[in-house]
Amino acid sequence: MTQIFKSIFGKNTRSIALLIEIVIVSIIGWIVIEPVAVDTTTALIPAGYDFDRLVEVNFSWLDPMSPSYDKDSETDSNRPHMERLLNMLRQRQGVEKATFAFYQSFEAEGRSSNRLNADSTYKDKGIDDLQYDMTCIEYMPNTDFFATFGIKDIHGNPFREPENDGGRFIISNTIAKAVFPDSSPIGKELLKPTEWRPTSTVVGVTQDVPYAKGDGRIATYYLARDWAGWTRPASVMLRLGEGVNPRTFIDKLNSELSQYRSGNIYLTHPIYMSDKRDERFAEEQRALTQKWIIVAFFLVNVLLGVAGTFYVQCKTRIPDAGVMRAFGATRRAIVCGIVGEALITSVIGWLIGSAIYLAYLKTQGFPMETDATEVIRYLRPVWHDTKLGRYSVIGGIILLLLLATSALGAWLPARKVGRVPIVDSLRDE
After folding, report:
1. Closest CA to 220 of 350, 393, 376
2. Mean pLDDT calculated for residue range 174-180
3. Alpha carbon distance 143, 203 (integer Å)
4. Strand 235-240 and strand 54-61: pairing?
């Protein structure tokens, strides 16, 4: 270790140049890695339902001007035709369960959210902002909605759908904790009564399920719909049996879609739910991929910079290595000395660079991008919610990456130095 420090501080010009390089890449690392780490964590939040076993098939309506339009069915309600198509799909081979899905459902284009306040007791726990958002998910009672999606209760068991006449709410665990922190929410009113919503009795609590991929720690609730309402189902969601290949199933269903028509309603555009999630998240995924490319570029440059610096030093290190070999040093000891010098330089540079960047963040008030409101961060904490957690993790990641790339960058030329014969290495001495 003493020899390593002598080598670092004994050649000031070389050491200072490498140290400055490490300081610069440490600062750049803070800039590029922090948003990537936070966004990746948000994107990796579990879906909470079995999207890898789901296939969605959309409802479509014949145009009145179409030659196939059935005028005798134009006064009929949608219900018998949609239920008939649902039952036809339930009987299809490979289908385990099926249910209706609305325009406000998982990964759907429609969205409706309400902003509410958490229980006032959270003020005593240091939470200033009690507001949080909850997103509505519509479902048709008694159509196996929760079983089809594979939604679980708070204990991790399959959720059992309670009776619901439309005035009762099923909420996610985050809402239950926010509104009823010290008691069970079952049987209690979630919202204040209004003229159009006289009751909002809670009848069930599910695990937290994001409305869409990339939403983060958003709270959701389930609103029952019936045929008397103004909305109608947008599609049928199929849950495939174990071992059924979804793409093979979709290909076969596409070839037989002409059979699925009732009145002026027919089925079209079957899509694998996993693909739908990727499509909905495509724009965010492109932005995240770009950030990862920048991180990869950053790491490659660190590797090349450190490797290049030590490679240039190879000739100056050869005489030193020859002297060390003549006095009994092994090749491994020489290589370890050069790699150790790179690692210590990286640690010193990381400390200086991190101190500079954190001092800059302090002047900006330590801005921290997040995916959740204050009360939800309290109820469902993750590593990037606090300054200590966020900057410890990000700083640790940068240090590990610097150490790994520096070690590899120094080891490659160090091997050459350690393998030079003693006679050749002492020839110029």
Report:
1. 376
2. 94
3. 17
4. antiparallel
